[in-house]
Amino acid sequence: GRKLLMIPGPIEFEPEVLRAMGMATTSHIAPNFIEVFGNSLELMREVWQSPTGQPFIVAGTGTLAMDMAAANLIEQGDHVLVISSGYFGKRFKDILDRYGANTTILEAPIGEIVSVEAIENELKTGKYKALTITHVDTSTGILMHPKPIAQLAKKYGVLTILDGVCSVAGEEIKQDEWGIDMVLTGSQKAIGVPPGLALLMASQKAIDVFKNRQTPVASYYSDWGNWLPIMKAYEERKPSYFGTPAVNLIVALETSLKIICKEGMDNRVKRHQNLAKAFRAALASLNLEILPKSNQVAANTLTAAYYPKGIDGAALRAKIAEKNVIVAGGLLAEIKTSYFRIGHMGSVSPNDLVAVLSALECALLELGQPIESGISLQSFQNELMQTD
Ligand code: PMP
């Protein structure tokens, strides 16, 4: 049977988005495609809540979006503070190091966030040009609230770069209001488009920092100097070319952004919060412990939970897959085989999570776990009925 894809990206996509992708490919300078590209850039500002931002749509993955942020905003020797709550914080450090940044990493213990005090102590040194935050670290399911960190960064005149790969269009982001200089993502998560697009939104300050560079951008493909005129042209509904855009993916992107904006970002964030809260309650009823030490730091786009003691993780996931639900294993090297991850972002509905919980419960029962059949479904639905 058809399997329900409940990993933290790629996710289940709207049929309308997949149909849009299957349309005949046009020239990248066909008038209808120029319109689609221009609309997509404008719709991004709504989703990012950044009316003054400069959007970029480039073929590539979330990692390319991180690479572009580092390549364009950082010069050799610049000090950058990396705030890490898992695997993807370390990846940002690696990328920044590659471009010659002088990085300092503040790493939270597994399941925790870095304190605002620890961040301020670093920023006080006055040496930093930029800091990076992983909004949701997909390896740990940790949510780091960017707003207070962005406020601090502003106080110390430091650029804020947010890895929003697992948060944009799922978690609350108000880029302009919060004063974040760069928010980046990939298409395959809460944006709801198959893998292959790097999406970035730069503040005017970030664009100024780029324009005032002393040294050339070390990556040809990532150089905003090549992409800025293209984004401007498409927004002015004019033909242009640097690298061939991923035509079909961008048609799908426009479709998905329209669906997102029709729901409205406030409603969408609330839906993610309600579903995540109910899902955590359901896991708790199965005595499954989540990685985040508190619900305040738990992501609303995915949940990471430890396997019960004595259960073989691969066997559990195989049993869940037999029931046509796909969940993900662990990613963080230190504890890779002791936990699993369930994505619940994008167009996720209560039905999807009922299916996940049913498959998970049956798999646990088959492996001899002493749980009461139906308990997680009951917890999930009770919790959901209490929310508005
Ligand atoms: N950052 C975060 C938080 C992610 O979750 C991911 C993907 N799992 C990435 C960066 C990298 O994105 P991609 O795999 O699309 O290159």
Automatic annotation (TrEMBL):
Positions bearing N6-(pyridoxal phosphate)lysine: 189
Needed cofactors: pyridoxal 5'-phosphate
Gene Ontology process terms (BP): glycine biosynthetic process, by transamination of glyoxylate
Stretches of the chain forming a coiled coil according to its record: none
Keyword vocabulary terms for this entry: Aminotransferase, Pyridoxal phosphate, Transferase
A Pfam family: Aminotran_5
InterPro entries referenced in this protein's UniProt entry, alphabetically: Aminotrans_V_dom, Aminotrans_V_PyrdxlP_BS, PyrdxlP-dep_Trfase, PyrdxlP-dep_Trfase_major, PyrdxlP-dep_Trfase_small, SP_NH2Trfase/AEP_transaminase
Molecular function, one GO term: L-serine-pyruvate transaminase activity
Protein name per Swiss-Prot or TrEMBL: Aminotransferase class V-fold PLP-dependent enzyme
Iron among keywords: no
Superkingdom, taxonomy of origin: Bacteria
Domain named Aminotransferase class V: residues: 25-330
Keyword Transferase found: yes
Binding site for substrate: 341
Protein family according to the UniProt entry: Belongs to the class-V pyridoxal-phosphate-dependent aminotransferase family.
